């Protein structure tokens, strides 16, 4: 096991590992843990009582955080003609069709979000193996396969977070920066948790959220009061 650094040890002293924090107290505490030379991301991790091996228990979707993520997002759009013009007007960083897909096939991926019109999803299929593992393949569930490319670009630029449960039933997401006010972080976190609760599969049995934690990029994590999260509808 690697040796705990002096910096991390100091941070651990600020966290009560024996308690489950309510959200307001967790946000206030996590803001005292900032120790990096950059504006750290506030991250939430949730362990869900689902089995993603079953298609009807796959928790996946997207949500636009009211205060944004604090991260500059590069948005690419696969579209043609009028829809390509619409994407450019909405502020997309990259717009293209077959030529752009060829670039992706060569491994040129310099975007954070990819949006596509439904008519070009067939062509995009040939780079699915490149995009899929990186979580960049457009999907109707996250609103990234759509004819309304302008709205999709706007959502991505203004703080849309896509989430997908992993094989162990966990979801992890950045919900803002430590420099955000407590109010903005609270609003973002509640919006995110409500979106997760809305995605609860009908076939999921027992307590939907098993455990939850809040942390910064470079900090220890705080255990959250699960009941408070489950009550966020």
TrEMBL record:
Organism of provenance: Campylobacter magnus
Main function: Protein L1 is also a translational repressor protein, it controls the translation of the L11 operon by binding to its mRNA. Binds directly to 23S rRNA. The L1 stalk is quite mobile in the ribosome, and is involved in E site tRNA release.
Keyword Protease: no
The protein's name in its UniProt record: Large ribosomal subunit protein uL1
Keywords: Repressor, Ribonucleoprotein, Ribosomal protein, RNA-binding, rRNA-binding, Translation regulation, tRNA-binding
SUBUNIT field: Part of the 50S ribosomal subunit.
Entry GO terms, CC: ribosome
Pfam families listed in its UniProt record: Ribosomal_L1 (PF00687)
Similarity section: Belongs to the universal ribosomal protein uL1 family.
Database matches in HAMAP family: Ribosomal_uL1_B (MF_01318_B)
InterPro entries for this protein: Ribosom_uL1_bac-type (IPR005878), Ribosomal_uL1 (IPR002143), Ribosomal_uL1-like (IPR023674), Ribosomal_uL1/biogenesis (IPR028364), Ribosomal_uL1_3-a/b-sand (IPR016095), Ribosomal_uL1_CS (IPR023673)
